Amino acid sequence: MAEEPIPLATYSVVQQVADRAVKIRYGSTSGIDGSPTTVSGVLFVPKGTAPQGGWPIASIGHPTVGLDSECAPSSYPGLMGNAGTIAQFLTFGYVVVMTDYQGLGTPGPHPYLDPTTEANDVIDAVRAARAVVPETSDTWVGYGVSQGGQAVWAANEEAAEYGRGLRLVGTMSIAPATDLRPLVDAMQAGTLTVEQKVLVPMVLKGLQVRHPELDLDDYLHGVMARSVDAFIGCEGENSSQRGIIAQGAPASDFMPSSPQAADRLRQWFGADVLPRRPASAPMLVGYGDADPIVLPQWTATAVARACALGDVIDAHVAPGQGHGTLDLGSALFDWVSGRVAGTPPPNTCPPA
């Protein structure tokens, strides 16, 4: 465990509502082989006096920022677009900690979209926050968008075991990546959206960390095979270039080389499908009905499966909204405030 105080001016968006900022390096566990890992992140303490029992903790799972080590959000003044969310949680009286995830900001590859690794990183970030900020309670909530939505959903499922000693009261997953098997169908059918075309190279490179036998040539051809490096760099650096390349790439550039190659990819994706087990705490799940990356029917299916497991879910569909941070009005913080206060959670799952 290492900590480094950071001048609040480094993160200008949060300096008005934060009392202090600290960069952290903490221990976690690989979801691939169970080995110990070192993960970086950043935490913020709100202004004011901690309530009786200590500040609750919000652990943030950030969305996709790239696969290179230098893409760690904690290294950027704007926190790779997460500063506004962090400022909101600070305003509502949370100590906020955001993991960079394994391989972002620390040596070694980033196992992009490995839910167990992400879950461990999110949970251990809470432990790190408690070690750095003694005036915290054991109560925590999780919030994440896209990749982060997957991370905190998986953390909710892992919390009863891996998160023992902490008290998770709820997670908020926005546009979560819960099941990528339909991507394979779209690759075979030639129906990938432009946004999904941008995603595919990153997903494949992330899978290679866990499955070195994955041959990119089985899934990417032509201009896409020649342009992989443009898709794994940090968000913002090559974003416009990625869109241009993906827009011009024909469907044949994503066609699996054989039915067997397609089946292998489905099997790899299948190991990461959420839900995998009942959740430990209530969930809010939000998604846009115009999401071009994680299609709304994919999320609706995941919610239905989780409901069938007995999970308590408050599902919100945002009309006309796409992928990423959604405008849910006051619903998000009304919901999380209720979980911390211990009020009964809303449940949109059908009666058993």
From TrEMBL:
Q: Which molecular-function annotations from GO does this UniProt entry contain?
A: triacylglycerol lipase activity
Query: Which first-to-last residue range defines the signal peptide?
Result: none
Which top-level group of life is the source organism from?
A: Bacteria
Q: Name one GO biological process term.
A: lipid catabolic process
Q: Name one Pfam family in it.
A: LIP
InterPro entries per the UniProt record, alphabetical: AB_hydrolase_fold, Lipase_secreted
| Record-linked SUPFAM superfamilies | alpha/beta-Hydrolases
The name under which this protein is listed is Putative lipase
